[in-house]
Amino acid sequence: MPLILIGGIIFGFGLGFSQMARPEVVLNFLQFDDFGLVFVMFGAAIVTGIAFAVMPRLRSAAPLTGDRYERRLKPFDRNVLVGGAIFGVGWGLSGICPGAAYASLGVGNVTILWALAGMFVGAYIQGYWRSYAANSSPTATRAD
Domain boundaries in the chain? Predict the structure, then answer.
């Protein structure tokens, strides 16, 4: 638990430092007015790509959990398309993604509470809908 808290603090600091916790900066990026966040995203993608390529060669299991490194493939289906579309619309309307919304709250943006409330309502509706669909269909299979 303390390592998760430390990781969250580092992640939130990075979002705040890179200005990704400021919706106006993100909206300027989405409107092609400011390309500074491209460098932030490419930097994160490069670090992640290196970690995914190198860590399985250095260790056979994750250091904290002991789980084996393996790819988790998910099908590209309607749920992925609908979820991606909803995420994109929410990002475009609020100017912030879920992770950065919490960091934005930490830097004093209290109006982001509307976006956070929308995320919670959407997650609840999606969970309710999936459990209803799973209970109403006797041959339902799990997508994840």
Answer: 2-136
